[in-house]
Recover the amino acids of this structure.
């Protein structure tokens, strides 16, 4: 099962992360949480890894619609977006909102998931048209 929307970019990690935040904002998403997995694993376990950031993105209108359909959908919110490096390349991955339709089995969530997916795809697609891409 493919559960992500993915983009590979040659942009450096910090630059890509900043662009992702801006692209999400342009699509009505706020970043509610940021988890620096690299720093956390280093601090808590003494383990080193490549850059890895989890952004918890939320579009309040879409979240409200989804919660009105299924109050337990909060377990699948916010939309996680990962910015990470692998072998010198930056990878941006967003959880495909259609996953919440599949997981819950509630077809009434499909229109909300469609809109969220369209906005996330638009945000990631906007990153393709940068001078460094």
């Amino acid at each position: 099962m493919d559960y992500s929307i993915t983009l590979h970019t040659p942009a450096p990690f910090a630059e890509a992360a900043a662009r992702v935040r801006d692209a999400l904002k342009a699509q009505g998403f706020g970043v509610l949480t940021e988890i620096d997995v690299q720093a956390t694993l280093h601090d808590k376990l003494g383990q080193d890894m490549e850059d890895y950031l989890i952004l918890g993105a939320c579009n309040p209108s879409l979240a409200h619609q989804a919660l009105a359909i299924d109050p337990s959908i909060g377990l699948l919110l916010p939309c996680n977006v990962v910015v990470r490096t692998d072998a010198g390349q930056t990878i941006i991955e967003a959880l495909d909102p259609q996953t919440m339709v599949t997981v819950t089995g509630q077809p009434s969530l499909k229109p909300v998931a469609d809109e969220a997916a369209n906005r996330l795809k638009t945000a990631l697609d906007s990153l393709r048209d940068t001078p460094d891409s």
User: Anything to note?
Assistant: The chain has five helices and five strands.
